[in-house]
TrEMBL record:
PANTHER family: BLR0684 PROTEIN, PTHR41521. This is DUF1330 domain-containing protein. Coiled coil: none annotated. InterPro entries: Dimeric_a/b-barrel (IPR011008), DUF1330 (IPR010753). Residues 3-95 form the DUF1330 domain.
Length: 96
């Protein structure tokens, strides 16, 4: 079974306090769902049309596990805390 990768790119942070509240809840919810943080931070270097945005990559054992984690009550609480605190792009991608 192919691994899955949850990728978030933060276009803008509008409220750092909401982001901090989200992080306190999201990290444990994601780890409880089997997620392993591989990348968290700003790019060291960007190329082509790359944007200088905070990037998070989380590995899961399957797409189903990543989706179940996203849809869990624990992660929903994190999203509720985040509210409109950030503008981001998030996707789940199956590994090669």
């Amino acid at each position: 079974m192919a691994k899955a990768y949850w990728i978030s790119l933060y276009r803008a942070v509008h409220d750092a306090d909401k982001l901090a509240a989200y992080a306190k809840l999201a990290g444990p919810a994601i780890q409880a769902g089997g997620g392993r943080f591989l990348v968290r931070g700003m790019p060291s270097k960007t190329y082509e049309a790359g944007l200088d945005q905070r990037t998070v990559v989380i590995e899961f054992d399957s797409v189903e596990q990543a989706i179940a984690t996203h849809d869990s009550a624990g992660y929903k609480a994190a999203l509720d805390a985040l509210g409109d605190g950030v503008e981001r792009d998030m996707r789940i991608v199956e590994g090669a």
